[in-house]
Design a protein that fits this description.
The structure holds two protein chains of two kinds. Chain A is mainly beta. Chain A contains two helices and six strands. A five-stranded mixed barrel of chain A has the order 2-3-4-6-5. In chain B, about 15% of the residues lie in helices and about 25% in strands. The chains are: A mainly beta, B alpha+beta. At the A-B interface, α1 and α2 of A face α5 of B.
């Protein structure tokens, strides 16, 4: 099992690409940067205002980091093919998104990919259909 | 309330009083499920609606998913008190278990990236918002704001038809956020919206215009649009405050 994480600078992403809920996306997340993590799911919580994914990610130094991923609201996720059992503890998943502005191990999800290489859900979250 | 806002209110009421009685079938039917557009192309905007936004109101461009970062308010001019409040705003407080499920007021929520449904009768129009399960009653029977009407996040709304446009005036809105980044309105905020269907009826356009001199020197406005999605209905939101516990766990393990 390969666990890894990486940050990557990205071009300015359109603010309209991100569906925010009660708290401000722009205040909490950096829309100008990308982050990709891959790890083992430890929990998946599927309630509004945001679903959350907790996962263990092995860093470049070999140490396991405990990440938390915020997603869109489940009311939005459900219209993109997500279900409450789309992820289970023990699943390996790769997640792309935007990093937290405060540098903590926290990010906002754009898309998720399972161990089989298939996207979870019907579309990533920059396609603007709510 | 600013003078221009008062003048506009009087104009709206006058138009209502002077207009001939109309039957329900004379008015557009806004009923149905409306999904947020996320359209950034301003060419779709209806000039008829834009023309009725007061020229000195600042049209802020944060409708839909877009939001302003800390310290940016889209051109709104804040009072010194509001500017100080925004500068001292602690975003993390919105992620506490006490606050994470508090719905924003209609001033912010009307443009959020969630769908809503319209149920329309001649006397009453109901907006059912998916966002925080909020329900909004718009009284079309000419009633005034009742004495001792409670303040709430949805406020108290009355409406009338101005030709093809539904005009909604809202007061009694409990203090809440305007831009979700530290700029908050007071209980005295007043809001007027105008809703108009596209020619083919597949898109609902609206302008929102708000005034709260205690916090913004200039009145504010937004342009919002939604697309019809027949057959869909809003989902239950049922906000779960345990999300705040997840947030609190970041970096704690």
């Amino acid at each position: 099992m390969r666990l890894s994480f990486a940050f990557a600078a990205a071009g300015m992403l359109a603010l309209s690409a991100v569906a925010a809920a009660h708290h401000s996306f722009a205040v909490f997340f950096d829309e100008t940067r990308d982050v990709r993590i891959e790890g083992v799911v430890t929990s998946f919580r599927f309630t509004n205002p945001h679903a959350t994914i907790a996962l263990d990610v092995r860093g470049a130094d070999g140490a396991v980091q405990h990440w938390r991923v915020e997603t869109n609201a489940p009311v939005v996720l459900q219209r993109r093919g997500w279900r409450r059992d789309s992820l289970r503890a023990g699943d390996v998943v790769r997640i792309d998104g935007w990093p937290s502005r405060d540098g903590r191990l926290y990010m906002r999800m754009r898309s998720a990919t399972g161990a089989d290489g298939r996207a979870i859900g019907s579309a990533p979250f920059q396609t603007n259909d709510n | 309330m600013t003078t221009r806002f008062l003048i506009a209110l009087v104009a709206h009421v006058s138009a209502l009083l002077l207009s001939a009685p109309a039957t329900a079938q004379d008015h557009p039917d806004l009923s149905g499920f409306w999904g947020p557009d996320f359209v950034t192309d301003t060419a779709i905007r209806l000039p008829q609606l834009l023309a009725q936004v007061p020229p000195d109101a600042v049209l802020i461009e944060d409708s839909g998913a877009a939001e302003f970062p800390r310290g940016e308010f889209g051109g709104l001019v804040l009072t010194p008190e509001a500017a100080e409040h925004a500068a001292n705003w602690d975003a993390a407080q919105d992620m506490t278990i006490q606050r994470v499920c508090l719905p924003p007021s209609i001033v912010y929520a009307v443009q959020g990236p969630f769908p809503f449904e319209v149920f329309q009768t001649p006397e009453l129009i109901v907006f059912q918002y998916e966002y925080f399960d909020q329900t909004r009653l718009i009284f079309m029977d000419g009633r005034a704001v009742p004495e001792n009407q409670p303040y709430s996040k949805m406020g108290f709304s009355t409406g009338h038809w101005d030709g093809p446009e539904l005009v909604v005036e809202t007061s009694n809105i409990a203090a809440s956020t305007i831009t979700n980044n530290g700029l908050d309105h007071t209980d005295d905020v007043r809001m007027i919206e105008r809703y108009r269907l596209s020619e083919d009826g597949t898109r609902l356009h609206a302008t929102q215009w708000f005034s709260d001199p205690a916090v913004i020197v200039t009145d504010g406005a937004r342009y919002i649009s939604w697309t019809a999605r027949p057959g869909e209905h809003v989902f239950p939101y049922e906000c779960d405050p345990s999300f705040a516990l997840e947030y609190a766990q970041i970096g704690a393990e």
